[in-house]
Amino acid sequence: MAVTLHINGSATRVEADNDIPLLWVLRDQLGLTGTKYSCGIGVCGSCMVLLDDMPAKACRVKATECAGKKITTIEGLADQADHPLLKSWLELQVPQCGYCQSGQIITAYALLSNKRDPSADEIDQAMSQVLCRCGTYPRIRQAIQQASELMRAKDPS
Ligand code: FES
Ligand code: FES
């Protein structure tokens, strides 16, 4: 069936069988390969996207269920190079192999969008949804804390 998806600010019409996960539509039909396929069973978080600004695992959401929702993939953050989170990620050289990192950034972005001053425990809890085989967690936490400080310094309200 044809379904209209709102991805990264644009409405896109795609053909999607009832059961096809959003992940396959993003990667195979639309070439948005920044969203990664790893476990495929909702465990690793490499496929994390934002659905109506909340993190969601694209391998576990049917594309047809996403009609009418706002979908943001890592490509959708490309025009936000000045965002403190992305700057901190680069400055602190967070990635190692990089495979999990779009899922990490999407999840961290959602965390800071909803809470500008998360505690270390809140960061760890939010980020536990995304597994990093390379063990970049200390740098991930540091980058989120640095971004949080920058955001609050820029806009203390
Ligand atoms: S590929 Fe979706 S959670 Fe692992
Ligand atoms: S940076 Fe390699 S899996 Fe996370």
Structural summary, described in words:
- With 157 residues, the protein is an alpha+beta fold.
- The mean pLDDT is 96.
- The protein is built from five helices and five strands.
- Helix content is 36%, strand content 15%.
- β3 and β4 (54-57) form a beta hairpin.
- The structure holds FE2/S2 (inorganic) cluster (FES) (2 copies).
List the topology elements.
Elements: E1 2-7, E2 10-15, H1 22-29, E3 48-51, E4 54-57, E5 70-72, H2 84-91, H3 101-114, H4 120-127, H5 137-154
| Largest sheet, spatial ordering of strands | 2-1-5-3-4
The overall pLDDT, averaged over residues, is 96
Number of helices: 5
Bin the strand percentage.
5-15%
Q: Give the overall silhouette.
A: globular
Largest sheet: 5 strands, mixed
Oligomeric composition of the shown chains: single chain
Bound molecules: FE2/S2 (inorganic) cluster
Terminus-to-terminus distance: 46 Å
Please tally the β strands and state the result: 5
Radius of gyration using CA atoms only: 16 Å
Give the helix proportion (percent range). Answer: 25-40%
Describe the structure in brief.
This protein has 157 residues and is an alpha+beta fold. It is built from 5 helices and 5 strands. Strand 1 (2-7) and strand 2 form a beta hairpin.
